[in-house]
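quick one before i forget lol
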Amino acid sequence: MNVLVINSGSSSIKFQLLNTKNRHALCKGLIERIGLNDAIFNYQPENGQKYKELLPIPDHTSGIKLVMDTLLDPQKGVIKNLSEIDAVGHRIVHGGEKIKSSERLTSEVITIIKESSKLAPLHNPANLMGVDAVRQVLPNIPHVGVFDTAFHASMPKHAYIYPLAYEYYETHGIRRFGFHGPSHQYVSMRAAEILSIPIEEFNCVTCHLGNGVSLTAVKGGKSVDTSLGFGTMCGVPMGTRAGDVDPAIMLHLQDELGMSTSAVHDLIYKQSGFKGVSGLTNDMRDIEDAAAAGNERAQLALDLFSHGARKYIAALSTSLGGRMHAIVFTAGVGENGPEAREQICKGLEVLGAKLDLGKNSVRGKEAIISTDDSPVKILVVPTNEELMIAIDTEAILS
């Protein structure tokens, strides 16, 4: 099946056309700065040269038309007719509590996505702009929504309920949702394949370490616990997000320092994490360089990150209810940061995970980086959320 995967942001459209049989991307691309006269269109067909063009793209509909025209282009296109696209898989961030799996985008599901926009105001409306734009061009083929939150719908109640007065869950739906679902699902599935363990028997902790960070306990292919929660701020410190912070601090900032709700939100989401502690940047590479040059706050940011990740790996391993087969690193830092992986793995020997420093030098490709005698394997698996969306789209339609 050829599935067009669309990840629509407020001013961007990321796309791939994937063949689910051979798991190859026929092409991929990215439109940025939608709404401006100098929007950027990046495109690359499989095994072909990269194209980059600056041109006016006034809205998402114009952007999708450009994508379709490019797919059909005699020189750089990859299909001869739009009928070669069998389905469209859309990345949707939040499905609330009602969406528990990928879903065909019916009017009822669209309504739920709109209702869930209050939980993801920056993402769901933008995702729906992409859905509307593609449906105008491809109205007669199935469209499927693959939700960041849906993979975590399998968590047991004790893992997603917060110990607030229960009425706040019943009446207001306040609970842990979890995010980065397609990434955790893909890398756990791929790690099981690499280790030749049936996914139904495979237990691991997946570590999505990028500018955003989440860790998940995956038991038998299903999420049973995760570090992100109602929003995308808690857990391990991130590029600009604080991670776990005592809620009493939020009250103190408002009551004693007179900060507004919006100012506190800006602080914990945009001015904290690596950037806030180091005083430099949210980029791990720059922080590592600064730490190597003797910057103490940069080193402190690295220490906080590795301590938080190591603590969550250990905690999540207890949610697996049995043997842990592997720890899986993915996303920007997880895939390309051997130094970060080394620091995180220090102390994980207590769980039976022993890092091989030589094997750990790998960047950006699949590898087993634990010692040969390590009871718990440590892997690097580059994430492929687009492929996971395509696979899920095919599964829903079949």
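fyi The radius of gyration is 21 Å.
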